[in-house]
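name: query_chain
kind: protein
chains: 1
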Amino acid sequence: MTKLSPLAPERFPIISDISGVGMTSVACGVKYSGKLDLLFAEFDVGTQVAGVFTQSQTAAAPVEWCKKALLQGKARALVVNSGNANAFTGKSGDNAVRLTAEYASKIVNSKPDEIFIASTGVIGEQLPHKKITDAIVDLDIEACIDWRSAAEAIGTTDTFPKGSTEKVMVDDTEVLISGIAKGSGMIAPNMATMLAFIFTDASISSDILQLLLKDSVEKSFNRITVDSDTSTSDSVLLFSTCKAKHLYIKNYNQKELKEFKAGLDRVLLDLAHQIVCDGEGATKFIEINVSGADNNDAAKEIGFSIANSPLVKTAIAGEDANWGRIVMAVGKSGQKANRDTLAISIGGIQIARNGQAVEGYNEMPVAQHMKGSSIVIDVDVGVSNGLSKVWTCDLTHGYIDINADYRT
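structure:
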């Protein structure tokens, strides 16, 4: 991993083992010599699975495999490599995924379509899948999981491993929800974003898991951006081992599901925020709240227009309270905005209302807020009641340095 992001959390969370999940991480040589680059997880029979994937028209081979495997709703293993995305690799890329799934299925005594595959790294280079299959044949799958190593194994330009965990009650039974994620650059959600793997011992059917995951992703991973670029490999998978001894949940509206929904939301939002905090070259975490839009979707579009603007992001990096750039970004969004009722605040300090700077506006407290590591922007576009919240980071020269040398 490269130089630690200044926005990194103080420590990796303590994550308890989840019944029905075994996991190990090794260096198989796909990424760099001696670096962890392969994660293998084994699940007990009966594990349910849900997933959401990139809508990129050049999706990677593992994404296409997982979409098909997801149809049967069961999982016995997860294989993830970093260092090579296996994207834009033609039929040989598809073959690499198939062979990996077949090898893994023999190890766990399952069907190949119960094996889920993910890859991340350089696009357009053939995946040396034999390094992966040779490695997984000899793996010692551990029930006692080193979650930090697992998170490190799936990273690329990440500067810190990302993990999150929650304990919730479902029908008087304690349930664990834990996840790991990777992401730093090429972050602009279009379903999910980056790679994230969530594990729980809850007893929930795959169709209900799918509804839960889709809803939670929309409120978390689908609200972040680093650089407006959507990856070919974006995948979020949720595995439920069904080991918890509560009433099996088959209905989305069961009251027993309320706390689980909230816990899942917290885990995904935490991981999403960690990705923003690890944005390539990032020094500031930015929250953008949009109100007064035509509808919630319009508010989201306006929020992303602000969040993805290089001019806004570089102004924040330079600690310049240039609110005119926010006005520009609202206007270019293509969504309705009332110029003469537009209002803008930064750090809770109102800068503009009724389409112009407030009388007696003093930039000093705003400039002070801009020096912090957490920036809050509020915009009311004065049209209707649409609301949205998105998160991003600033744009510094560090982003150029990282991506100019990505393949080396």
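note: The first helix runs from residue 61 to 69.
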